[in-house]
Write a structure and sequence with these properties.
Two copies of one chain form a homodimer. By secondary structure, chain A is an alpha/beta fold. The first copy, chain A, has 13 helices and twelve strands. Chain A folds into three domains: 44 residues, Orthogonal Bundle (434 Repressor (Amino-terminal Domain)); 128 residues, Response regulator (Rossmann fold, 3-Layer(aba) Sandwich), CATH 3.40.50.2300; 134 residues, Response regulator (Rossmann fold, 3-Layer(aba) Sandwich), CATH 3.40.50.2300. In chain A, the strands form two sheets. The first copy, chain A, has a six-stranded parallel β-sheet with strand order 2-1-3-4-5-11, sandwiched between helices. Chains A and B meet through helix 4, helix 5, strand 2, helix 11 and helix 12 of A and helix 4, helix 5, strand 2, helix 11 and helix 12 of B. Chain A binds a DNA duplex through helix 2 and helix 4.
Chain lengths: 337, 337
DNA sequence: CTGAAAGCGCTTACAG
DNA sequence: CTGAAAGCGCTTACAG
C-alpha cells in the first residue's frame, strides 16, 4: 500500500520520530532536516494511517450523528448544519439512520463503533427516558429533539410547548375559531408530539376556545401522506375547521395538498401552519407559515456541549439548552375569511 | 476506559488469542472455555477497539460518500438509499459535503482520511475528467452522476441524454409547441446539464420543432430559486413558452411557484416537467411530472462496484453502468390547452 | 534538535 | 483446541 513513516524515515535518512515531528508540525526541527523529510514525504506520497494514529492518540476525530431519517427535509437540513459545525470544530461526521426504530436506536446507544467515534449526537424517537438514563456506554453524548429527557445527557432543543403555542396563537390572531391539530401520537409515542399538543391546548385555553376531540388528528409518521389523510378527514366533518396547526412542515405540506384535492382554498377556507421551516415551505403553493427553529444554533450548541464532554468534562451535571425559534408568516395564513 | 482483550483474558484465565477467537466467532472453542470467556466479556462490558482492529486488519468497514449537499432532496434521498445499501453489505457511511466546490472535491479525491475509509463514492460537480483521471490516491472509488467521465473509475448514472429526451418528448406528445428549458450551465459547468440540454435539443429536432435561444435558460445552482427566476423571465417574453423542461425537480418546483406568482396556470397555460422524482413533487400543487431514476438501484450498483474493487479487483478496466429511469406523469403536464 | 524504544489493542501465522 | 509472540503504523515520554 502506501508508504509508512518508516519508509519515509529511511528515505530521508532520519528517524521515525523526526518524520513524525515534521508531519505533525512540531516547531523545533532544523530547516535542513525538515526539507529532507518533506522531500521524502512528497516523493513517497505519504499519507498517515488514521487508524494507527487514532489507536495511539485514543481519539478519532469522528462523531456520529444518529437521526431518524436523512431524507426528511428537516433532518437533512439539520444534518447539513451539523456537518458544518463539526467540521469547523475539526471533526467529521458519520451518520446513522435509525428510522426511528427502537432496535436501531438501542444499538446506537449501546455504542456501535466503540473507540471509533469520539462522541455521539442522537435524536431519539423510540427510546424512552429511562433507557437513555440506563445507558452503559460512556461515549460522550448530546441529545436532540424532545425536551422531556430530564437529564440523562446534555440536551439541545427548542421549547416545543412555546413554539406550538405561538403557532396556534397566530391562527387565533388572524381570526380563526375552529382550529384543528394534526400530528398527535399514540400515548406511547414520541414526546415532541406530546409537547406540541400541550402548546396547542394551552393556546386554545388562553384564547377561550373550546377543545374539540374531532379536530385533533394523529399524524403517525410526520410525513406528507399523513397530512393529506388527516386534512381529508377534517374536511369531511359536518363542521370542518377553519385552520390547522400541523406538528411539522411535512404534515402541513400534505395538508395543503389534501385541501387542494378537496377543492378547499388555503388560506381563505382553511389556514395552515407548520413547524420546522424546511425549504419546501417557501416555494409551495401557497407558501407555508411556520415556526423556524435556528438549526445552525442547534448544531453549534450541540457541538459545544459535545466538545466540552469529549475534552474530559464527563461528570458535570447534564445541561439543557433551548435554541431560538421564530414565527415566519407566509401565504398559508394570510388574510381573514 | 473500557476493558481490553487482555483484561478479559486475565479475568477468564485464558490467553488473549482465545478471547479474540470467541469475540470473532471462531468455531473451534470448547464450550467450557467459551462460557468462561463470555462471562468475563459481559462482566467487563467489553467492546472491541475498532481503531486497533482496523489497523490490524487493514480495513475499516467505512466508506465515504461525497455529495454536493445533503439538504437537496435528491441527494438526501440518494444518501438514504446509499446508507441502506452499504449497511446491507456490512459497511457504514461517512458523508462528505462538498457544496460542489472544487477545493473540497479535490480534497476528497486526494484522500481525506487515509486508511480510515475503505472506499469512496463520489458525485463530482466541479472537478473535471482530466483531474479525476490524474488522481494519485488509490482508495477504490465509484463515480456518480455525470456520464462524461470516460473511464477514470467505475461509474453509475442514468442515461441523461435519453432521460431528457423522454421528458421533452412527453411535452411534445401533449401538444406543446414552444418548449423551454431551464438548467443550462455556463460552458465550463457540469456535464449533467450539458447532457440534458443535448437530450432536449435532440427531442425538439425529432419533433421538427425549432430551437429558440430565448427559451433556453440557465439554472445556476439547480435550486428552487433559480427555477422561480428563470420562469419569470420566460413568462415575460413577448411570446412565452407553453411548456418547460426543467433539468431537475427543484428547478421545476421553483418554476411552478414562479408561474403561480405570475398568475399563470400550470398545466393549462404552461406545462412543467422535471427530473429526479423527489418526494416534494408528489405533493406539490400541481403535482410534478418527472423522470424517476431508480435510486435504490444506483445505490446497489455503486456498492457492488465498490465492493469488487475493495475485494482486490483493482486493475480491471473501469466499468460504466446505466441505471433505470422512467417517466412519471402527474398534474403538471396533464391535459391540453 | 534528534534517536531508540515502548506501547496503543488488536489479529494472525506458527507451534504444540 | 489454545498459547506465546510478532507486528499493523503511529505517538510520546525519555535520553542525550
Amino acid at each position: 500500500m502506501g508508504a509508512s513513516l518508516r519508509d519515509v524515515a529511511q528515505r530521508a535518512g532520519v528517524s521515525v520520530k523526526t518524520v513524525s515531528n515534521v508531519v505533525n508540525g512540531y516547531e523545533h526541527v532544523t530547516p535542513t532536516t525538515r526539507a529532507k523529510v518533506e522531500a521524502a514525504l512528497s516523493e513517497l506520497n505519504y499519507k498517515p494511517n488514521l487508524s494507527a494514529r487514532n489507536l495511539r492518540r485514543g481519539r478519532s476525530g469522528i462523531i456520529a450523528l444518529a437521526l431518524p431519517e436523512l431524507d426528511s427535509p428537516y433532518f437533512a437540513e439539520l444534518a447539513r448544519a451539523m456537518i458544518k459545525a463539526a467540521e469547523d470544530a475539526g471533526y467529521t461526521v458519520l451518520i446513522d439512520q435509525t428510522d426511528g426504530l427502537l432496535e436501531r436506536e438501542r444499538h446506537v446507544l449501546a455504542g456501535i463503533r466503540p473507540q471509533l467515534v469520539d462522541g455521539l449526537i442522537v435524536s431519539p424517537l423510540a427510546v424512552g427516558r429511562e433507557e437513555l438514563a440506563a445507558r452503559t456506554d460512556d461515549t460522550p453524548m448530546v441529545l436532540l429533539g424532545e425536551s422531556v429527557f430530564e437529564g440523562p445527557a446534555d440536551h439541545v432543543a427548542i421549547d416545543n410547548v412555546a413554539a406550538a403555542g405561538i403557532a396556534t396563537e397566530h391562527l387565533v390572531s388572524i381570526g380563526r375559531q375552529r382550529i384543528a391539530a394534526i400530528g398527535v401520537q399514540p400515548p406511547d409515542g414520541q414526546g415532541t408530539a406530546r409537547l406540541r399538543l400541550q402548546g396547542y391546548l394551552d393556546a386554545l385555553g388562553a384564547a377561550g376556545l373550546p377543545v374539540e376531540e374531532d379536530l385533533i388528528k394523529q399524524g403517525e409518521t410526520f410525513h406528507r401522506k399523513d397530512g393529506v389523510k388527516a386534512v381529508q378527514e377534517l374536511l369531511a366533518l359536518p363542521e370542518p375547521p377553519d385552520a390547522v396547526f400541523c406538528f411539522n412542515d411535512l404534515l402541513a405540506l400534505g395538508a395543503i395538498r389534501g385541501a387542494h384535492e378537496a377543492g378547499v382554498r388555503v388560506p381563505e377556507d382553511i389556514a395552515i401552519v407548520g413547524i420546522d421551516d424546511i425549504e419546501d415551505g417557501q416555494y409551495s403553493t401557497p407558501s407555508l407559515t411556520t415556526i423556524s427553529p435556528d438549526k445552525d444554533q442547534i448544531a453549534r450548541l450541540s457541538m459545544e456541549f459535545l466538545q466540552s464532554r469529549m475534552a474530559g468534562d464527563r461528570d458535570a451535571a447534564p445541561r439543557e439548552v433551548q435554541a431560538d425559534f421564530r414565527l415566519i408568516e407566509r401565504e398559508s395564513t394570510r388574510g381573514r375569511h
